[in-house]
Amino acid sequence: MTIYYGQNQLGRISSLNVLERLWLNSFGDTDEDCWICTLKGSDAGHIRIRLDDKKRMMVHRLAYEAHYAEPIPKDMQVNHHCDNPSCFNPKHLYLGTQLDNMRDRLKRTGYTMPKKNNIRTIKIYKRIR
């Protein structure tokens, strides 16, 4: 049975907070596993969840902020050690820059060519090499 925000298992109105909704729509058994959110995501696999104030936030960013109890600095992003964009296990997440993320990806996968042929991607790619 799918539980929607605002309903409990009996279909009655409930007041689940955002973290409770996230746990109800995810799976992952241990701290070493990827914790996968089963909500619909973007084409890239990143998933957003509605916060209690109706704004939306990517679940891996929400998990990082909730676990470490600190906001993400404006010049940083939350990257995945596991290369799974729908994972929100804080042990699989780290703060870094886009350049850190691309270097990490290059080291793990050997991916060497930018997918998109745009100026920003090519500039970042050239800085890695």
SS-based structural class?
alpha+beta
- CATH fold-type name: Homing Intron 3 (I-Ppo) Encoded Endonuclease, Chain A
What share of the residues does DSSP label as strand, in percent? 5-15%
Mean pLDDT: 78
The low-confidence parts are none
Succession of helices and strands: HEEEEHEEHH
Total DSSP E strands: 6
Order of strands, main sheet, comes to 1-2
Query: Which CATH class applies here?
Result: Alpha Beta
Query: What's the number of helices?
Result: 4
- Over the alpha carbons, how many angstroms does the gyration radius reach? 17 Å
Number of domains: 1
Dominant shape = globular
The rounded distance between the terminal residues' Cα atoms is 49 Å
Biggest sheet layout: 2 strands, antiparallel
